[in-house]
Recover the amino acids of this structure.
């Protein structure tokens, strides 16, 4: 696991976000060869065979849920997962929900990455948190039921900002999550495990 990754959620918790909706879906992208080998991934890395199967399984599970629009990260792994989840539904791309830009640390072992530090040519943790929350607010201003397809770093920021506990299983690639607000408090449900 990367160094300081838990600090991302702790820091995001210092920035609560107000959203225009009480309900949305989130799906982390399917697995890539970079996930499997533990490297810091570049934006252009594709889903591997397992990731394609995971994206298809997430799409099948979400087919019975009312979703009006899928909003995806432009990074290939999330975009392709978004295409699978969207199916015949409309999809748009929002660059603000892309994974953190790690500059010179890309293609290096993720176990050596320190999320608390800013890599040369990369963005800071604070910049990433701010950008993710801007992107989430933008995605959820669309009318109707929205599914956001992005990355593990974005999920940690969202959970921290909404005060939702993270679980190991919610971070598994392509696990569909439902976020709902009730009486001012957010909760997350892992749809594959209901």
């Amino acid at each position: 696991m990367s160094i300081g990754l838990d600090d991302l959620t702790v820091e995001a918790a210092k920035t609560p976000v107000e959203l225009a909706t009480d309900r949305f879906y989130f799906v982390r992208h399917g697995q890539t060869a970079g996930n499997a080998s533990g490297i810091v991934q570049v934006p252009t890395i594709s889903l591997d065979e397992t990731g394609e199967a995971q994206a298809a399984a997430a799409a099948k599970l979400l087919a019975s849920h009312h979703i009006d629009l899928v909003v995806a990260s432009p990074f290939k792994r999330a975009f392709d997962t978004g295409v699978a989840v969207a199916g015949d539904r409309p999809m748009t791309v929002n660059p603000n929900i892309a994974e953190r830009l790690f500059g010179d640390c890309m293609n290096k072992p993720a176990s050596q990455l320190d999320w608390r530090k800013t890599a040369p040519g990369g963005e800071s943790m604070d910049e990433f948190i701010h950008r993710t929350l801007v992107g989430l607010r933008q995605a959820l201003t669309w009318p109707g039921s929205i599914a956001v397809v992005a990355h593990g770093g974005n999920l940690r920021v969202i959970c921290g900002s909404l005060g939702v506990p993270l679980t190991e299983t919610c971070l598994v690639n392509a696990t569909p999550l439902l976020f709902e607000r009730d009486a001012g408090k957010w909760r997350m449900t892992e749809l594959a495990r209901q």
Observations:
- The radius of gyration is 15 Å.
- The chain has one domain: 5-188.
- The mean pLDDT is 95.
- The first strand starts at residue 23 and ends at 28.
